[in-house]
User: Which sequence fits this backbone?
């Protein structure tokens, strides 16, 4: 029996070891990449990384590179659920600037203007907007908690970080007011949990964004002084200017004078028009003095099948030049109504697939051998006209920094000075105080001189009308995510006189109902939050 | 109940191994330790050990007042001496066994009660007064010879006749010998209420098992597997197709399926989808005089698997005319003609093969002294019909079942090792083979892609050696050759169960059960640089992964059995502690080491479960049976306030035939009515280990953000629900067990209703309230109602001819009864059922009032020619306008789950021959033919980027040009009858005059299918048929030898 005693003792000991206790149920994450909210900010460096997440939330949609993994939002493929990708979709696909060939869910509905409240892509951009707002709130709470005890450079950094988080939150709320109008409203006062955010009306949200930007502006780094990629005062002024320029749409009350106040600040902040228009959309655009606020992408470090990678690949195919990418996905192209703004027609491309008009801003592709000018089947990519504006090579044709065959290194120019020039002209024409026509003419011609390479395209004061400005904005800013907002401001997005191919799901284009100037509150959120009310018409 | 055993030692050995347990479980025994020296309960516990030590110290004291008694034990049948019978002083561990003459000598005190028992005989108790010699004649236990079925019910066993819950037992004799290569196949078509579908036809493919429909939406719907007392972690592991695939089916002794909450509640939180208890074989004690003799079994088989059918696509010649026709008559760009080839390649034929498999198992059962052990060795090589797809599995199993302290301490120690080498081949080849242009040759002489024809970028001047076209189909044969996707997995399971009969409290025993389950895998997935798809994301060319799971278990429980008058009590109560740990890493890099982007991402997670449980079985007059079960479970996945879930259950059963006013007759042998109610839970939400804790997740390389010249990793706050708690299933079950016509018909009939509340559900939440748009939270309710009938018939029972027939019938109806926190009748449900063809396209819904995953599609309008009209749908809403743009025009139609499932299996033995089959009839299961909806469209023939794609000939049924994903023309009734196997065998009692018995058999698996479904195979997981690895038909020759 003695020998068994040893066995018993072994089992006895292991039994005690095993049985542990219920304390074991109190777990803490053991994954090297996961930390609890209580522990993560014990390291000051964490604040900058948490801030980086808010910025990154526009560029990529999860915590892993490449094809993704560990996505931020659900209910949509991670690569589709990307902020810039869906922002681009709602702002561009719904207009005369772009049309989509793919069969993904309801993606064609954008151009047809037939979207419904349960649209998965509208859900995605709405979710991304509020995702960014939620994590900004979290950052602001954490920064507030630390500012009291911080000192020195770290304190200065933290103050700027917090202001940047507020800027980004305001930027996303601007997208919300522009696209959805009356939306749920959460600030740093609302702790995460299970609750129903209150609804805010478009008017009240306008006041909130305005007040936020004015309040935080002083805490931001001075214009052109911040690290590349981070927002500075110029970005906040630009956003205020955008908000005021569209105030009449958002609240019914025009604020063109206020717009001019901030446009003037932006213009005199130290940014300058890039001598090379092409560079603003190439892989070396990080060096462009014109960009006020970019969303950055990098082939090696900021990867995703969304953002610029999406814009570059989806708009390529049908024999188009690759411009630094490894192949096209044959999705987005533009239509005849848009290219006509550059006075080009099908025959111009007969001998040159990349014919360029005098206005060098028009960068198109059309192979008369295999492409068709008219879009008779929306699903056929080679019907329509290819757009080569964005490139994943430098402006001189060299490889992109950290070049990657698949992932783009070109940054997305969210705000740039040329836009401010045109906003100036528009605010003046619309009667805003603080500007004049002569200066407006100077700004417009500065852009046109760059576009033509000479002054042959220059206009006179008399040419600068609202309808000219809408056209000029299209020529200067196409595919940069402004078109829907602009068309609405000029009353042409839905029921205006301007129709384009396949608007209203009709080949020749028809007017659509004006309620579509706002996107619907997604069904998911209407169901989840009883405080919300669907936008009129849906 | 069961039939006479066959001439097959395998089966004999089951009987023998099972018998001691049967004996010890007879409720009328006053001591459960009558089978001293044999395998029985293996009881132990740490606190018991203290008693053991005390016992050993006190032993001499106890012996002081003893006197010696001798005697002889004989059989009532023929008066022969019973060798190795147990003689035990009741309530003590004092005992002995009879010698070769049936005689024994024992020292006992006056007044002691001696219990004499022998396997297969009714035990006898003798009170010692002044006897010096005892002549004991044991009566043959008739019931014992009937081979009383004992079923595992978790932390103990029960006689099947005394079970109060809904239990289906499948014992080894029900298994189709020689045709089974995985443990899961044993369940297919065998038990009512159990739906087991193999997931495709790959070598070693897993099986999806659902008991009474799934109870959860987001949570795990797999039943809990308990193998040799160790509840398994059922989640998969990378590189191992399914944890169950590591169990050698030849080692399985029995499978018990627990279905209602009364039966499953003892497993509480992990049991809401039912429990499957698997027991593996144990060593056998041989009769006196036979010790030293080995029981040796060999089983082996050789099989050939062949594809049954291919998807119907156009041949090269047909495709050329299709393309020409589209160009000439339908406006397809003539550029399509430029890339058309001249070959006729049948790509599907090229990637599949007829593939051999073989399996060999040797088991040996023996005893060293009085310590029985069993050793088994297994080897399996299985080839998939897709080229390069193989598995290679080696098993080693050892169990040792010693008894100590004169049988009071029984140990059941087992260890198993499984080594599994997988070659997954490249399943992408399957879809590629359907789509790749049949006019292209396999090789076109390029130098860039190893000669394999590849579509290149239209704009590249280098032609066939140009940049690859990334969105084009890649060469199916290059897919096979240029991907090396293999893994090596290992699994070790160590189990130790210790049963101890407590010496001072009669009828009380304690059990300590320890389990350690370790599995690991190392895998690689390498794309050759010659592959045309290796250019995209070059840093992903070489991927390596490793994963390690370590699960440990400790159960400690006591069992107390007592009879008072006509009442019998059987109480089990205890504690269980489990820890699950999962860790590993994934790495990737490019062939060219200078290409940046190489990364290694580690991960590590764990969770704990702590439980207390108790069960009381009460029997009155052997007629009325009552069971109460209670389990309290704590999971580390939930916050302290919500952590514990209490799961009660109660059941009553009435053995009607024990009533004098009903009585047993030749017509009605046995009737038992059962009613149960109970609750179980669900906490398994997959990879979400800390769903209630606010956490931050860092970003990995490639997901950094640029400030200045520096790229910063980011920190993300993760969504969490601090109030997350258990999902609860409440189940109600009414059952009737019956044995009729002189045991020729037996079976059970069940009615049940399972209601799931507080569904752990990943649902859209109020935006802005948390750090995502979806959150795992408790919302919604679901109901499963059903009827089950299991029947075992023996239409013929003659000397030379027996015919057994098993029929089981299942009807299950699933309905979602609640989905949102806020009651909203206008809620349009949650989309599900992603299809291939466009991202975000779904064809199913979760919606209140419907079954889970109900199809949601437009009503197709057909023309006078019977063909569907492209894009024209029924305007159901009457709102006019664009019908296809209005979701209100979609209908809720049908579900992927069958309404009725009928399993039919049969076995005929004639003299030495046996013939058996197993089949299934599935009625009312609908399948969305995604292969047709996505691959039978003229538009796909030519892509603007310069490549051609073959399409399915199904296009002739629709003539559709563009995708019409939501047309209900693709929804088909996929009811089917499937002959899972047919087998024929010859049994022999001796071979070459030796003492070797055995069986030689021939069988066909997946013999045939009868269905109207137009796709390849109507058996489709979740009802969406796309790119499945076709199930092969397998011809097998098998041999069993027993020595």
Assistant:
């Amino acid at each position: 029996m003695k020998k068994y005693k040893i066995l018993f003792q072994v089992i006895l000991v292991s039994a005690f070891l095993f049985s542990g206790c219920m304390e074991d149920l109190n777990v803490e994450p053991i994954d090297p990449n996961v930390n609890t909210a209580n522990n993560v900010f014990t390291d000051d460096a964490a604040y900058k990384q948490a801030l980086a997440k808010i910025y990154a939330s526009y560029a990529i949609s999860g915590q892993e590179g490449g094809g993704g993994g560990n996505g931020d939002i659900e209910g949509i493929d991670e690569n589709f659920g990307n902020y810039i990708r869906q922002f681009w979709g709602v702002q561009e696909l719904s207009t005369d600037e772009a049309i989509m060939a793919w069969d993904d869910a309801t993606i064609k509905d954008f151009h047809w203007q037939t979207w419904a409240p349960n649209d998965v892509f509208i859900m995605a951009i709405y979710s991304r907007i509020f995702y960014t707002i939620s994590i900004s709130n979290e950052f602001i709470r954490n920064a507030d908690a630390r500012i009291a005890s911080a000192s020195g450079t770290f304190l200065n950094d933290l103050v700027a970080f917090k202001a940047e988080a507020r800027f980004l939150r305001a930027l996303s709320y601007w997208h919300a007011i522009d696209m959805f109008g009356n939306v749920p409203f959460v600030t740093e006062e609302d702790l995460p949990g299970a609750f129903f955010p209150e609804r805010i009306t478009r008017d009240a949200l306008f006041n909130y964004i305005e007040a936020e930007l004015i309040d935080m502006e002083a805490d931001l780094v001075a214009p052109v002084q911040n690290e590349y990629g981070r927002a500075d005062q110029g970005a906040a002024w630009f956003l205020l200017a955008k908000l005021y320029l569209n105030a009449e749409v958002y609240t019914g009350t025009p604020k063109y004078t206020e717009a001019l106040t901030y446009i003037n600040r932006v213009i005199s902040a130290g940014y300058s028009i890039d001598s090379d228009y092409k560079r603003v959309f190439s892989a070396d655009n990080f060096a462009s003095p014109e960009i006020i606020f970019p969303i950055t992408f990098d082939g090696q470090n900021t990867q995703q099948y969304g953002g610029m990678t999406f814009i570059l690949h989806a708009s390529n195919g049908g024999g188009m030049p690759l411009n630094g990418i490894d192949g096209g996905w044959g999705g987005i192209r533009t239509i005849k109504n848009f290219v006509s703004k550059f006075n080009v027609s099908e025959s111009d491309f007969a001998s040159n697939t990349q014919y360029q008009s005098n206005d060098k801003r028009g960068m198109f592709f059309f192979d008369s051998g295999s492409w068709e000018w008219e879009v008779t089947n929306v699903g056929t990519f080679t019907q329509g006209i290819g757009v080569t504006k964005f490139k994943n090579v430098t402006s001189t044709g060299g490889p992109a920094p950290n070049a990657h065959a698949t992932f783009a290194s070109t940054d997305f120019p969210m705000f740039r000075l040329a836009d401010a020039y045109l906003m100036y002209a528009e605010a003046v024409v619309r009667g805003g105080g603080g500007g004049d026509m002569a200066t407006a003419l100077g700004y417009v011609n500065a852009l046109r001189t760059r576009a033509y390479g000479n002054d042959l395209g220059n206009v006179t004061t008399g040419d600068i009308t609202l309808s000219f400005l809408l056209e000029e904005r299209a020529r200067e800013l196409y595919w940069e995510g402004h078109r829907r907002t602009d068309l609405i401001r000029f009353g042409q997005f839905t029921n205006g006189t301007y129709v384009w191919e396949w608007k209203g799901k009709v080949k020749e284009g028809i007017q659509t109902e004006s309620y579509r100037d706002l996107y619907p509150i997604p069904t998911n959120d209407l169901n989840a939050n009883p405080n919300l009310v669907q936008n009129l018409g849906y | 109940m069961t039939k006479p055993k066959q001439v097959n030692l395998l089966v004999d050995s089951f009987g023998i191994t099972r018998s001691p347990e049967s004996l010890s479980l007879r409720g009328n025994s006053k001591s459960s330790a009558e089978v001293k020296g044999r395998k029985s309960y293996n009881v132990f516990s740490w606190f018991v050990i203290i008693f053991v030590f005390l016992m050993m110290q006190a032993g001499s004291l106890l012996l002081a007042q003893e006197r010696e008694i001798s005697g002889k034990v004989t059989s009532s049948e023929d008066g022969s001496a019973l060798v190795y019978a147990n003689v035990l002083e009741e309530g003590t561990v004092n005992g002995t066994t009879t010698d070769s003459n049936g005689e024994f000598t024992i020292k006992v005190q006056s007044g002691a009660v001696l219990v004499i028992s022998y396997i297969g005989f009714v035990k006898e108790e003798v009170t010692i007064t002044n006897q010096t010699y005892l002549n004991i004649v044991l009566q043959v236990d008739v019931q014992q010879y009937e081979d009383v079925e004992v079923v595992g019910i978790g932390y103990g066993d029960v006689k099947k006749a005394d079970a109060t819950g809904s239990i289906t037992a499948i014992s080894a004799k029900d298994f189709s010998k020689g045709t089974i290569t995985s443990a899961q196949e044993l369940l297919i078509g065998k038990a009512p209420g159990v739906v087991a579908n193999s997931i495709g036809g790959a070598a070693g493919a897993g099986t999806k098992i659902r008991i009474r429909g799934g109870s959860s939406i987001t949570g795990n719907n797999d039943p809990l597997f308990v193998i040799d007392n160790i509840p398994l972690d059922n989640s998969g592991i990378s590189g191992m197709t399914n944890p169950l695939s590591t169990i050698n089916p030849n080692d399985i002794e029995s499978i018990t399926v627990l279905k209602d909450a009364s039966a499953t509640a003892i497993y509480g939180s992990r049991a809401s989808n039912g429990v499957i208890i698997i027991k593996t074989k144990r060593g056998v004690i041989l009769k006196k005089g036979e010790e030293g003799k080995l029981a040796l079994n060999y089983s082996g088989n050789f099989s050939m698997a062949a594809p049954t059918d291919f998807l119907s696509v156009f041949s090269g010649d047909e495709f050329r005319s299709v393309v020409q026709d589209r160009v000439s008559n339908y406006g397809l760009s003539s550029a399509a003609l430029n890339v058309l080839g001249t070959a006729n390649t049948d790509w599907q034929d090229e990637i599949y093969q007829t593939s051999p498999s073989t399996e060999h198992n040797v088991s040996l059962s023996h005893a060293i002294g009085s310590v029985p052990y069993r050793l088994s060795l297994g080897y399996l090589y299985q080839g998939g019909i897709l080229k390069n797809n193989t598995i290679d599995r080696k098993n080693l199993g050892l169990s040792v079942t010693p008894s100590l302290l004169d049988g009071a301490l029984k140990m059941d120690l087992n260890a198993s090792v499984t080594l599994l080498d997988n070659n997954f081949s490249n399943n992408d080849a399957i879809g590629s083979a359907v789509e790749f242009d049949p006019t292209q040759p396999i090789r076109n002489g390029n130098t860039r892609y190893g000669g394999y024809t590849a579509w290149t970028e239209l704009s590249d001047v280098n032609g066939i050696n140009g940049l690859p076209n990334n969105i084009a189909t890649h060469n199916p044969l290059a897919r096979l050759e240029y991907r090396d996707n293999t893994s090596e997995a290992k699994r070790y399971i160590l189990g130790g169960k210790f049963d101890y009969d407590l010496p001072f409290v009669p009828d009380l025993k304690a059990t300590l059960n320890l389990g350690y389950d370790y599995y690991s895998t190392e895998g690689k997935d390498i794309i050759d640089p010659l592959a045309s798809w290796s250019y995209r994301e070059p840093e992903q060319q070489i991927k390596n992964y490793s994963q390690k799971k370590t699960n440990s278990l400790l159960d400690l429980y006591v069992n107390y059995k007592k009879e008072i008058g006509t009442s019998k009590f059987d109480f089990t109560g205890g504690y269980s502690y489990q820890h699950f740990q999962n860790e590993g890493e994934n790495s990737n890099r490019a062939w060219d080491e200078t290409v940046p982007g190489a990364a290694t991402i580690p991960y590590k997670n764990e969770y704990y479960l702590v439980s207390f449980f108790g069960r009381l079985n009460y029997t009155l007059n052997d007629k009325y049976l009552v069971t109460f079960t209670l389990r309290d479970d704590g999971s580390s996945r939930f916050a302290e306030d919500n952590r514990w879930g209490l799961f009660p259950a109660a059941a009553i059963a009435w053995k009607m035939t024990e009533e004098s006013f009903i009585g047993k007759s030749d017509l009605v042998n046995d009737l038992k009515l059962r009613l149960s109610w109970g609750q179980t839970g669900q906490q398994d939400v997959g990879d979400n280990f800390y769903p209630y804790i606010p956490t931050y997740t860092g970003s990995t390389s490639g997901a950094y953000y640029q400030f200045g010249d520096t790229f910063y990793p980011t920190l993300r706050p993760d969504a969490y629900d601090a109030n997350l708690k258990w999902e609860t299933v409440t189940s109600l079950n009414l059952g009737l067990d019956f044995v009729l016509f002189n045991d020729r018909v037996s079976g059970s009939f069940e009615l049940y209703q399972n209601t799931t509340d507080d569904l752990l559900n990943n649902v859209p939440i109020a935006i802005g309230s948390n750090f995502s748009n979806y959150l795992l939270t408790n919302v919604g309710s679901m109901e499963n109602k059903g009827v089950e009938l299991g029947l075992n018939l023996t239409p013929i029972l003659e000397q030379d001819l027996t015919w057994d027939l098993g029929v089981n019938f299942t009807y299950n109806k699933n309905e979602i009864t609640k989905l949102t926190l806020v009651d909203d009748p206008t809620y349009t449900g949650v989309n599900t059922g992603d299809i291939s063809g466009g991202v975000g396209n779904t064809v199913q819904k979760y919606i209140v009032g419907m079954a889970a995953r109900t199809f949601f599609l437009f009503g197709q309008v057909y023309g006078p020619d019977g063909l569907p009209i492209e894009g024209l749908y029924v305007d159901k809403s009457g709102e006019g306008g664009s019908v296809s743009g209005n979701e209100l025009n979609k209908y809720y139609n049908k579900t992927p789950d069958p309404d009725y499932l009928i399993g039919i299996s049969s076995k005929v033995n004639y003299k030495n021959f046996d013939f058996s089959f197993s089949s299934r009839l599935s009625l009312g299961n609908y399948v969305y033919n995604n292969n047709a909806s996505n691959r039978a469209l003229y538009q796909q023939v030519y892509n603007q980027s310069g490549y051609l794609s073959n399409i399915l000939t199904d296009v002739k049924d629709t003539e559709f040009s563009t995708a019409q994903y939501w047309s209900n023309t693709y929804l088909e009734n996929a009811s089917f009858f499937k002959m899972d196997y047919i087998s024929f065998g010859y049994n022999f009692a001796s071979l070459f005059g030796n003492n070797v018995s055995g069986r030689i058999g021939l069988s066909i698996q997946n013999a045939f299918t009868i269905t109207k479904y137009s796709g390849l195979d109507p058996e489709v997981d979740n009802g969406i048929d796309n790119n499945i690895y076709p199930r092969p038909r397998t011809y097998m020759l098998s041999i069993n030898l027993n020595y």
